[in-house]
Amino acid sequence: MKRVYIICEGQSEETFVKHILSQHFENLQIYLTPIIIPTSRKQKGGGLNYDRVKFFITHKFKQDKE
Q1: Of 16 and 56, which is predicted with more confidence?
Q2: What is the pLDDT, as a whole number, of residue 61?
Q3: Taking a C-beta distance cutoff of 8 angstroms, is the pair 39, 48 a contact?
Q4: pLDDT at position 13
Q5: 31: left (phi over 0), alpha (psi -120 to 50) or beta
Q6: Mean pLDDT across the chain, nearest whole number?
Q7: 36 - beta bridge partners?
Q8: CA pair distance 63, 43, nearest whole angstrom
Q9: Residue 47 Ramachandran class (φ > 0 left, ψ -120 to 50 alpha, else beta)
Q10: Which of 19, 50, 57, 65 has the lowest tally of Cβ within 10 angstroms?
Q11: What is the CA radius of gyration of the chain?
């Protein structure tokens, strides 16, 4: 079993990963986990830059003990 995090900017990308991509990869025993990066306080999307994405990813990996 393998787990893959997919960083998403918003709900549209998250839905695509959950309902389209996941079906195919589960047959290969690869489980996808979409994670939405908060882009603003209201999380309406947009405004991502490299530093924000890098901080989010490194923080997420530190939380995951597996």
Answers
A1: 16
A2: 81
A3: yes
A4: 92
A5: beta
A6: 85
A7: 8
A8: 21
A9: left
A10: 65
A11: 13
d(CA 64, CA 43): 23
Distance (Å, whole) CA 43 – CA 26? 29
The yes-or-no verdict on residue 44 having pLDDT over 70 is no
Q: Are 59 and 5 in contact (CB under 8 A)?
A: no
Please, is 17 exposed, middle or buried when counting C-beta atoms within 10 Å of its C-beta (0-12, 13-18, 19+)? buried
| SS3 letters across 15-44 | HHHHHHHHHHHHCCCEEEEEEECCCCCCCC
Nearest alpha carbon to residue 35 among 65, 61, 66, 2: 61
- Give the model confidence (pLDDT) of 11-36 as tens digits: 899 999 999 999 999 999 999 999 98
